[in-house]
Design brief:
The chain has one domain. The strands form 2 sheets. Strands 1-5-4 form a 3-stranded antiparallel sheet. It contains 5 helices and 6 strands; from the N terminus they run αβαββαββααβ. It is globular, with a radius of gyration of 15 Å. The mean pLDDT is 91.
Length: 159
């Protein structure tokens, strides 16, 4: 995947700066999407080059899961467990964040997204993401951000 270093740095930044409750995979994916969405609105381009699609719980990219698995044991630690809803994954920092590929502006976007949402319950975060661009009316597997209109009037963060 081209631009993989940027995604690694985004993940490492979010995991190492997260101070809310457990950072689950669903929450991490939504935070990545919100950062890319805000960047898309502010700069007309995402921070990452992920191709998001609408999936079960909103925006998703298989590249995120692949990258998380590659980073496990290096920059981050993946923990899994079982709940009544099935298997869950949560992430913890394994090293200090260095983030050499992120610009100051990109780090500021990630910081704002974290400040706004790190203490938000995952279910509420999913609902927020759905509401921003009315994803209830988008068909499953539809590409998001790059090939759809983003409601620029509905910002995820207070700038």
């Amino acid at each position: 995947m081209p631009g993989k270093a940027k995604l690694n740095d985004m993940i490492e930044y979010l995991v190492s700066h997260f101070s809310g409750n457990a950072l689950t995979r669903t929450k991490l994916v939504k935070l990545l999407y919100l950062a890319d969405r805000e960047s898309y609105i502010a700069r007309n381009r995402q921070i990452s080059n992920l191709n998001y699609i609408k999936y079960h719980y909103g925006p998703y990219s298989e590249d995120i899961v692949d990258t998380l698995q590659e980073m496990d044991g290096e920059e981050i630690r993946e923990r899994s467990g079982r709940s009544s809803n099935g298997t869950y994954y949560r992430y913890e920092a394994n090293s200090d964040y260095e983030g050499s590929t992120l610009t100051r502006e990109e780090r500021a976007i990630l910081k704002q997204v974290l400040q706004e949402y790190q203490n938000t319950q995952t279910k509420q975060l999913v609902e927020t993401v759905y509401d921003l661009d009315d994803l209830d009316n988008v068909e499953k597997y539809t590409p998001l951000l790059q090939n759809t209109n983003v409601n620029v009037g509905r910002r995820a963060i207070n700038s």
